[in-house]
Amino acid sequence: MAASGARPMREIGVEGARRNLESIVRPAGPEMRSIADTGFEGPHGTVAVRVYRPVVAPAADAPALLWFHGGGMIMGSLDSFDRLVRDVAEVTGAVIANVDYRLAPEYAYPVAHDEAYAALCWFHEQASVLGVDAGRIGVGGDSAGGGLAAATALRARNEGGPAIAQQVLFYPGLERRCDRPSMREFGDSPFLTAADIDWMKDLYLGDDPATDDEYGTPALASSLAGLPPAIIAVGHADPLRDGVEDYGNRLRDAGVPTAQLRYPGVGHGFAMQTATVARARAAMAEVGALVAARFAVHR
C-alpha cells in the first residue's frame, strides 16, 4: 500500500474509502451449501441480511453466528465481506448471518447499534425458520463489526434480551483512540492510521467524547460481568491491539471465560487476507476451532 502511494482514508473521503474497499478483488471463498438473502424491518427501516450455510452444517438446529462486518462504521457491504464470512462459516461449521447495517456519516450513532440489536432479536425469532438452534446463537464481527458485536452483547445483558452463546471478536473497535504503546508504534501504518481512527470515530459517534456511552464505545462499560464467553483475536502490529487486549483482560477479570489470541507478523484486518497470508489462514482455523468447541458444549 505504501509503495502504491495509498493515501490516508481521511484524505480521500468517505466515498473514496468506500470505492477502494469495494474495488478489491478477492479470490472466491469456500463453497457453501446455500446462501440466501433475506432481511427484517428494523427501527430505522429494512435491514438486509445474507445467510450462509456451510456444507457441514445440518439442515436444522445448526449453531449460528450473527455477524457484523468491519469498515470503520463508514464503509463495507455484504459483497466486500463475502470472502471473510465464507471463511468464518467453513471453519466454525456454523450458519453465519451477515447484517448489512446502515453506515455513517449518513446514519450516525445509534443507528447501526440499534440495527445490530434488532438483528439479534430477529435472528432468535426466526431461528426455526432458518434452521438454527436458538440456544446456540453467538455474535461476532471484525474491526468496527467486532465493536458492534460487543455492544450487542452488553445490551442483551443489560435489557434481559435474547441469550448469546458466545462473542467472537476479530480486532474489535471498542474505544476512541487512546495513547497506548501499540497506537504509538503502529499508528502510522498505510492501512490504518491513528488520524484515520479519529476521523472515522467522529463520523460515527460525533466529535464530543463526553457524549459517548457503552453501546457506542464498549470499553466505557463499567462492568463486564455476566457477558457471554468471548474469543478475541488481534494482530501484534495492530494499533488497536492494546485496547483490544485490555478489554479481554477485563472480561477475564469479570469472570467471563475468555480466549485471547495475538498473532505476530500481522496487523489490522488480517482476517481478510486468508487468500494470501498463511498466518491469517492459521488464525482463522484456530479461531474457528475454538468457536466450534464452544458451540459443542451448548448441545
Tell me about this structure:
The chain is α/β, with parallel strands linked by helices. It has one domain (9-296): Alpha/Beta hydrolase fold, catalytic domain (Rossmann fold). Helix content is 36%, strand content 20%. The chain has eight helices and eight strands. It has an eight-stranded mixed beta sheet, sandwiched between helices. The model has no long low-confidence stretch (mean pLDDT 96).
Low-confidence stretches: none
Radius of gyration: 18 Å
Mean pLDDT over all positions:
96
Biggest sheet features = 8 strands, mixed
Strand order of the largest sheet: 1-2-4-3-5-6-7-8
Which shape, going by the Cα principal axes?
globular
Percentage of β-strand residues: 15-25%
Q: Quickly count the domains.
A: 1
CATH architecture: 3-Layer(aba) Sandwich
Report the helical percentage.
Answer: 25-40%
- Named CATH topology: Rossmann fold
CATH class: Alpha Beta
What is the tally of beta strands? 8
